[in-house]
Amino acid sequence: MKPLNLDANASNLEKMYEQSFSGMGFFKPGQAVKTEVVSISKDCVFLQLGGKSEGILDRDELTDKDGNLAVKVGDQLRVFFLTAENGEMRFTTKINGATAGSGMLEQAYLEKIPVEGLVEKEIKGGFEIRIGEFRAFCPYSKMGEKRSDDSAEYIGKRLPFKIQEYKDNGRSILVSNRVIHEEARQERLEALKKTLQEGMVITGSIASIQAFGAFVDLSGIQALLPVSEISRSRVEDIQALLSVGQEIQASILKIDWHNERITLSMKSLLADPWETAMEKYPVGSKHTGKVVRLADFGAFVSLEPGIDGLAHSSELNKASSYGTSRELAVKVGQALSVEILGVDLSNRRISLKPATTLEEDATTAKYLDASDDSATYNPFAALLKKK
Description:
Elements: H1 6-20, E1 32-40, E2 44-50, E3 53-58, E4 76-85, E5 88-92, H2 102-111, E6 115-123, E7 126-131, E8 134-139, E9 158-167, E10 172-176, H3 178-195, E11 201-210, E12 213-218, E13 221-226, E14 247-256, E15 261-265, H4 277-280, E16 286-295, E17 298-304, E18 307-312, H5 313-319, E19 335-344, E20 349-354, H6 358-372, H7 379-386
Parallel strand pairs: 3-5, 18-20
Antiparallel strand pairs: 1-2, 1-4, 2-3, 4-5, 6-7, 6-9, 7-8, 9-10, 11-12, 11-14, 12-13, 14-15, 16-17, 16-19, 17-18, 19-20
């Protein structure tokens, strides 16, 4: 019988152990890894590392305050290697107080790994952050998605940060919370680039309202809905039509990814009234509209949402020539009976002139008809007939 070669057996066992991790390489604490969720248990999320090897991530890291898990099997994750314990390769999505040794924090700085810190108090120029046994400083300009006037809202909260500076073995640490928000926003933007295109119809919620339009939230990215694109008719009070939190549908007019601008339109989803304008407003027909705007050259009269006609000042002055004033005899908001003089579909213009109402015409016709049956001469009716 040959004697056992213990050194050779130990060497073989070492090679077998190394081979069991083939395909996943050798991880250093803090090393970033892109992986996939392969299964989920009550306490852990298991990650694919290559071959038959799996990594372990605490389920709590991906669970919100209501207990909802943010991932499912097949989702891609970016995680960071923590340690190998009892043959298990443990990972994290961020470094917290329990894992925040000086070596780990330095690795987090070098590898740009998120760290979780407690905002303990406000100090000169910013906030003091505790990460495990270490103290860090976060300037006002680096806290939150945007600058807040209420700095007290952050005190006592645990927030994610990235280390911007790491000096003197952890005695001087500068962190940023805002960069976390900026990276998340960029990820959302990249996702939208794959799905959005000009002309498509989207659903979003009103995030804020300004005099020039409304900002609409699209999965965390804000698009602009100009006031001119809200309705076919002129919008005098945008807040009478829209409110913060309201869900709307709109089409995408323009996308400028370079400047990160998306322009929307609700108006484009509405039927274009000019398509039937020629049939609805033939020359010589009479209609009642509302004066919506005055200019030196005349008055604009709304016939329906999206269609305004112009009554020229010469026509308005002619209609009031028997008065003592040559100024326009109409005012904004006034109902006005008009007659169609012309329709220019290519330029979307309708020419108008003031006219008697259809009711007035019917009354006059009835009066004239009645006068024909009368033996008494009526000079006023005769005058109307001559006209």
